Amino acid sequence: MSVQGPQRAIAIFEATKGVLVLAAGLGLLELIHRDLQSAAGDLVAHLHLNPAQRYPRIFLQLAGRPNEPRVVWLALGASLYAVLRLIEAYGLWHGRRWASWFAAISGGIYIPYELRELAVRPNALAAGALLINLLVVIVMVRAVRAPPPMPAG
Fold first, then answer.
1. Domain ranges in the chain?
2. Long-range pairs for 128-135 at CB < 8 Å and ≥24 separation?
3. Is 135 exposed, middle or buried (0-12, 13-18, 19+ CB in 10 A)?
4. Structure confidence by residue, pLDDT tens digits, 82-103
5. How many Å apart are CA 66 and CA 79, to the nearest integer?
6. How far apart are CA 146 and CA 97, in angstroms?
7. Per the confidence metrics, is the pTM higher than 0.90?
8. How far apart (Å, rounded) are the C-alpha atoms in residues 76 and 29?
9. Cβ atoms of 18 and 82 closer than 8 Å
10. How far is CA 76 from CA 30, 40, 103, in A?
11. CA atoms in the 13 A half-sphere facing the CB of 12
């Protein structure tokens, strides 16, 4: 079985993550000099989240005390992450071996954290994230171990 199809699916997945994180980073920069607390409250209300629950509360607390350098650093970090995901996606799409290594390692890094999250707070999201990363790692290890294609000629 060829890993080209799964590699392309993972490339699309990684590119999508990169674009979403890049959009989030640009959105953070857009919020500089704006009422971030109000925008965060509107977002929590729009998503019908309970602001008293743990994650929405943390989100609202962070939005309530932003400072410009922190927001800029978060946006820069998001941009760097997005660029790495997009480079990985390009390499996977074009069947580059380095991209398969990168995807296997970067997917594998998250597995211990996801296992811990699943043990501490079992839920469908944690199980899904673990399953997706395990599949990515398995597919990428298979791609790395596969013999290189023979040149046409």
1. 4-31+66-145
2. 133/107, 133/108
3. middle
4. 999 999 999 999 989 999 999 9
5. 19
6. 10
7. no
8. 9
9. yes
10. 13, 20, 22
11. 5
Give the Cα separation of 107 and 103 in Å (integer).
Answer: 6
* Placement of tokens 């509360």 in the chain: 57
Q: Is 74 exposed, middle or buried (0-12, 13-18, 19+ CB in 10 A)?
A: middle
101-147 tens-digit pLDDT:
999 999 999 999 999 999 999 999 889 999 999 999 999 999 889 88
Express each pLDDT in 18-70 by its tens digit: 999 888 888 777 766 666 677 778 878 887 788 888 777 877 777 766 566 77
Show Cβ contacts of residue 92 under 8 Å, excluding neighbours closer than 6 positions: 7, 8, 10, 11, 14, 99, 100, 103
Rounded to whole angstroms, how far apart are CA atoms 94 and 11?
Answer: 9
Query: If DSSP states are collapsed to H, E and C, what string results for 72-137?
Result: HHHHHHHHHHHHHHHHHHHHHHCCCHHHHHHHHHHHHHHHHHHHHHHHHCCCHHHHHHHHHHHHHH
Exposure of 95 by Cβ count < 10 A (0-12 exposed, 13-18 middle, 19+ buried)?
Answer: middle
Distance of CA 10 to the CA centre of its chain: 12
